[in-house]
Amino acid sequence: MTSRVFCNRCFQPPHRTSRFSLTNCGHVYCDICLHKGKKDECLICKAPCCTVLLSKHTDLSIQAFFMGIDGLCTKYSKETSQISEFQEKHKRRLLAFYREKISRLEESLRKAILQIEQLQSMKSSQQTAFNTIKNSMSMPLAKPTGHLHLLPSSSDSERYRYINTQSSRKSLNQHL
Ligand SMILES: [Zn+2]
Ligand SMILES: [Zn+2]
């Protein structure tokens, strides 16, 4: 502890062997004054309290109350940069995780799009094949028009035969 520590009750300059205690109500006592008061009660403010001995082994957060501004700045700027470095690493790990996840998702999306394109091309080629089969099956139904064209010639010959029969009948009647 530094020379900034002094007893809040007797204000005696500290000796080499002096020991001081801090109460949770914020008062500092030398050993002599501390033993003059009641146990677990502050002699100055009468508040129920507990005390902690100030030494180089005391918790650093308590020691900080007795440090000079320069020391505090060094301590806290070091702590701040350590904390900031830790947070930065922590954030980078999370970002790396999300980047990896995003690239995995992009890869599966790319594969899915490829599969969809393949399925669509298969579907369209199947559709083409189906249309070809459908057209080839409907061809004979369209042909009768052509077939009917052939009929007049046969009906012509039939008509010719009919006329011949009629004329032969006529001539036969004339003979009779
Ligand atoms: Zn004292
Ligand atoms: Zn007090």
Structure description:
There is one protein chain. It contains 4 helices and 3 strands; from the N terminus they run ββαβααα. With 176 residues, the chain is mostly helical. It folds into 2 domains: 1-67, 2-Layer Sandwich (Herpes Virus-1); 68-139. Strands 2-1-3 form a 3-stranded antiparallel beta sheet. β1 (20-23) and β2 form a beta hairpin. The radius of gyration is 57 Å and the shape is rod-shaped. Bound molecules: zinc ion (ZN) (2 copies). This is Probable E3 SUMO-protein ligase RNF212. GO terms for molecular function: ligase activity; SUMO transferase activity; zinc ion binding.
Characteristic key phrases:
single chain, mainly alpha, 2 domains, 3-stranded antiparallel β-sheet, binds zinc ion, Zip3/RNF212-like, zinc-finger, metal-binding, SUMO transferase activity
- Kindly name the structural category: mainly alpha
Overall residue-averaged pLDDT value: 84
Strand element count: 3
Low-confidence stretches: 146-151
InterPro entries: Zip3/RNF212-like, Znf_RING, Znf_RING_CS
Keywords: Coiled coil, Ligase, Meiosis, Metal-binding, Zinc, Zinc-finger
Protein name: Probable E3 SUMO-protein ligase RNF212
Coiled coil: 95-122
Give a quick summary of the entry.
66% of the residues lie in helices and 6% in strands.
